[in-house]
Amino acid sequence: MTIQKNQEYIVDIIDNGFEGEGIAKIDNFTIFIPGTIKGERVRIIVVKVLSTHAFGKTIEILEKSENRQEIDCSTYKRCGGCNLRHVKYKTTLKMKQNAVQSLVNKTLKQKVQVCDTVGMENPYYYRNKAQYPVGKNQNGEPVIGVFANRTHEVIQIEKCLIQNEKAEEIAKYIVKFVKENKISVYDEKNGKGLFRHIVIKVGVKTKEIMCILVINGKEIPNEVKLVEDLKNKYPNIKSIVKNINMKNTNVILGKENINLYGDGYIQDILGEYKFKISPLSFYQVNPIQAEKLYNLGIELAQITKNDVVFDLYCGIGTISIFMAKFAKKVYGIEIVNEAVEAAKENALINGIDNVEFFAGDVEIVLDELINKNGVKADIVMFDPPRKGLDKTSINNVLKIKPKKIVYISCNPATLIRDLACFEENYDIKTIIPVDMFPFTRTRGMRMCAVRKMISRKWCVPAFLWLYFSEKAAFSSWNASIVKTVIDFRRRAFSKKY
Length: 497
What we know:
Blueprint: E1 8-12, E2 15-16, E3 22-26, E4 29-33, E5 41-49, E6 53-63, H1 76-79, H2 89-107, E7 129-136, E8 142-147, E9 154-156, H3 165-180, E10 195-202, E11 209-215, H4 223-233, E12 237-244, E13 256-262, E14 266-270, E15 273-277, H5 287-301, E16 308-312, H6 318-324, E17 329-334, H7 337-349, E18 355-359, H8 362-372, E19 379-382, H9 391-400, E20 404-407, H10 412-422, E21 426-435, E22 446-450, E23 462-470, H11 476-493
Parallel strand pairs: 4-6, 11-12, 16-17, 16-19, 17-18, 19-20, 22-23
Antiparallel strand pairs: 1-5, 2-3, 3-4, 5-6, 7-8, 7-10, 8-9, 10-11, 12-13, 14-15, 21-23
Helix pairs in contact: 2-10, 8-9, 9-11, 10-11
């Protein structure tokens, strides 16, 4: 049977994919249908046909899965952020585990059983950072909201089930001020208008709040009154920052920050440690799960007082500081200068004196540490961006042959890809997903690798901690060959389910 666009079909959902979408087969031809669950029978219309697969849209659910639940969000379909809200939470944890297991089975030579996903007791209102674009409603009035799925159209929201409730309240108050003072709203199409975004950061344990006002200009009309009003109405606000972003870009924050109130930062507590959070610094969005993740990773890594540790892509030093208690020495590397300065301050705040942080490109600094300064590491911690590891970093780590590697990643696909370059020399013991972003797709995961491999954003949603143990010497030349083969295989079969 030839699958045709705009034709209707009745299909059975046989599985769920990496984005949480349902998967059906017609004469062995794969069709992806968002919003469906394994075990359901649905009537669909095909909206797009490619050479190896197609995409469908649900017209009617003929047989519902017992794992389906009523959707409790009015903007669910248009937003696309929580694309698994139609699925019971316990089932989403299983879906994420299965998605990672599928990647493992397809890519790695070693047989590794992915453990149950570590979930949350209360998977609501867990985000400590809210980024609200400021747009206009149909009446031309300023509103805050979220971007519609795959667009930059602002959808007005009344209540988000994953954002901090106090952050949402403050953002609504600010946009009310914008409306009352007739302040213009930024228009991406022509680059005009003042107010772009409202960013709120909340210390979950300290209750301290930071407001970041992102504007396309230098001054906010009546900004003194706005600051005073916010201070008086919300005593927990410890910092109000004006962020200047006059570039026509999708990047939310500009590089220039002007303090309107406070010291320009807030603090929060993670585990037994206190961390300083600035406007541009990265801090785990779900600290409840982050604490579970770090403790689990350290437990499996079994760091001793004789161990030297590399923390690559260290951010503001959260993981470095967690590990320092158990290690002889920790070296942290991060490309964002502000984050490195924050990491140094965080170490001082917590009385940690056996960590050293370096600012610069991770690949370059790591190469200098290893090849110029002769620094060797017993344990290496990776926490790279979604694109994964650079070949140079992989080769340099393989050169020093650490006994353990910990890999935290916000992209399961690039994690598994990179693990394939290590598995010739390391045994992958365990993979444990940690759900960092409940009700969101698997791509939100983080991952990690250590001597007992354990499994960061489903991505935005979960972490994976992985633990490796050294097998044998593995030259950088061999690493390059294996990486080339893996990349070729991945490109050749990436379109196939």
